[in-house]
């Protein structure tokens, strides 16, 4: 790890990649919430300014996507779960 790098940014980007690879709605929402948490941690490590605002915006966007209603084609039928 090099000095001056925020390790939580890479973790947040990896979590956002998991969103695209999620197999179902539950996994997608969990990955979005994990990404939002990582963006929050990344923002906490930055001084007030442009990067911090950008990281906070990413966090808010991911939480809004996680809280949004899923479209009809991505809904999971609870009777098909274990």
Could you walk me through the main structural features you see in this protein, from its secondary elements to its overall organization?
This protein is mostly helical. The protein has 3 helices and no strands. The protein is elongated. The model has no long low-confidence stretch (mean pLDDT 87).
List strands and helices in order, with pairings.
Elements: H1 7-20, H2 25-44, H3 50-67
Helix pairs in contact: 1-2, 2-3
Oligomer designation: single chain
Number of helices: 3
Estimated radius of gyration: 15 Å
Question: What is the molecular shape?
Answer: elongated
Sequence of secondary-structure elements:
HHH
Structural class comes to mainly alpha
For this entry, give a set of tags.
mainly alpha, 3 helices, 82 residues, 0% strand
Short description:
With 82 residues, the protein is mainly α. The protein has helices spanning 7-20, 25-44, 50-67. It is elongated, with a radius of gyration of 15 Å.
């Amino acid at each position: 790890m090099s000095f001056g790098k925020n390790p939580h940014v890479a973790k947040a980007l990896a979590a956002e990649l998991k969103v695209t690879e999620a197999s179902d709605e539950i996994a997608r929402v969990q990955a979005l919430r994990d990404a939002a948490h990582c963006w929050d941690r990344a923002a906490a490590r930055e001084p007030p300014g442009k990067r911090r605002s950008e990281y906070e915006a990413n966090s808010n966007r991911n939480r809004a996507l996680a809280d949004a209603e899923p479209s009809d084609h991505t809904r999971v039928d609870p009777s098909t779960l274990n």
